[in-house]
């Protein structure tokens, strides 16, 4: 008699599909079937990858040396360029040996948690959070401790809140600024205070800096890794996807103390080996080449940010703080709940998002994907025309203030 077993491992069965990718896939499927759907789901710039980066990739594809394996941790030239960029932009001094090139930023999140978290460890995650963090923590055997900060706090947690969340099992803090999903940016003073607190507690800090180049209104980006006391207990995550419109190229990285990077690199030797060489060469061109395209894209995002906040705040039941970074608006939609909308009365933002998709043909991500119900995330990385039309559809459905 065969032994009883699950067809799918309980470890993998316990994690949820990425909510943002699910919304994006549903919107694209409806569009492919002929529906006129506008998607605010995925954080994906609508711009093409800058031409000089594409040209570097074409040249790399023609060079036979890029047709072979390279070191699993990444091309030496790229690792060196990332180390130099990290010193310049994050104030964290690292050697090339302290860099691991990963298959996108998401892979860097998983690798860092796999390298640091033991079964039973707790990771403090400020909420609203990016939907992948809790699932990656779960895969590593840890548990997520959410610390929520609402719009009245600018979606930013305080040291006092973090202190209340610490237990004897706390291993790390996940820190994200600029934030996905809220667009919040911690001030230099707030960042340094949290960094010093984490160092005093003996906690690791995993800082996701993939939106570092996207801040507005003169608001500076401050890396928590620049806090001197954290030098030996911080891991920096980033990548080229958002800054250079390279989501499909799949190049991210993690930078940190040598022992942690070595451990994550060893994992990568078994998991994926090296990132595709053509993509690595493209990333090298992105980091070391002209930066004017980044400025141009940021200007477009800034324009769209102003437009989306203005339009969202005209909708009945919506209150939208002005985001200072990334390319997301995080709507407080609690005022739109528990009232009839075209024959339906949504009681959660998950239900509200379904109504908006069904009735207005607009895809948004409900707050349940990022923490508590009551909120909606809309990416303004899509084109200007779609952005305006999409928000107007929601306003027609929900009404104006």
TrEMBL record:
GO terms for biological process: amino acid metabolic process. Residues 36-394 form the Aminotransferase class I/classII large domain. Keywords: Aminotransferase, Pyridoxal phosphate, Transferase. CDD domains: AAT_like. It is an enzyme of class 2 (transferase). Belongs to the class-I pyridoxal-phosphate-dependent aminotransferase family. This is Aminotransferase. It comes from Nesterenkonia sphaerica.
């Amino acid at each position: 008699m065969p032994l009883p077993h699950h067809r799918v491992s309980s470890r993998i069965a316990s994690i949820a599909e990425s909510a943002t990718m699910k919304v994006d896939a549903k919107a694209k499927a409806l569009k492919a079937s002929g529906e006129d759907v506008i998607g605010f789901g995925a954080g994906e710039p609508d711009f093409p990858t800058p031409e000089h980066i594409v040209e570097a990739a074409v040249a790399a594809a023609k060079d036979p040396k890029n047709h072979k394996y390279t070191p699993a941790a990444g091309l030496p030239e790229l690792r060196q360029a990332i180390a130099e960029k990290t010193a310049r932009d994050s104030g964290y001094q690292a050697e090339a040996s302290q860099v691991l090139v990963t298959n996108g930023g998401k892979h860097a999140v998983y690798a860092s948690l796999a390298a640091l978290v033991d079964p039973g460890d707790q990771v403090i995650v400020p909420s609203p959070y990016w939907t992948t963090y809790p699932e990656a923590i779960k895969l590593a055997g840890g548990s997520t401790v959410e610390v929520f900060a609402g719009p009245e706090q600018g979606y930013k947690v305080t040291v006092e809140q973090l202190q209340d969340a610490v237990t004897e099992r706390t291993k790390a803090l996940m820190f994200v600024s600029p934030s996905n999903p809220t667009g919040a940016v911690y001030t230099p003073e707030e960042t340094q205070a949290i960094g010093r607190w984490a160092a005093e507690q003996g906690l690791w800090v995993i800082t996701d800096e993939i939106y570092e180049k996207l801040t507005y209104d003169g608001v500076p980006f401050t890396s928590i890794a620049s806090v001197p006391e954290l030098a030996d207990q911080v891991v920096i995550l980033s990548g080229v996807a958002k800054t250079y419109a390279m989501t499909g190229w799949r190049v991210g990285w993690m930078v940190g103390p040598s022992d942690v990077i070595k451990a994550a690199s060893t994992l990568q030797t078994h998991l994926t080996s090296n990132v595709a060489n053509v993509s690595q060469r493209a990333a090298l061109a992105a980091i070391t080449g002209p930066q004017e395209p980044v400025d141009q894209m940021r200007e477009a995002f800034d324009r769209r940010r102003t437009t989306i906040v203005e339009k969202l705040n005209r909708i009945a039941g919506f209150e939208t703080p002005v985001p200072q970074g990334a390319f997301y608006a995080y709507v407080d939609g609690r005022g739109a709940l528990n009232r009839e909308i075209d024959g339906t009365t949504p009681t959660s933002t998950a239900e509200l998002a379904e109504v908006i998709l069904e009735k207005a043909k607009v895809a948004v991500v409900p707050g349940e994907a990022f923490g508590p119900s009551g909120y909606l995330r809309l990416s303004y990385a899509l084109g200007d025309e779609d952005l305006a039309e999409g928000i107007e559809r929601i306003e027609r459905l929900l009404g104006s203030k």
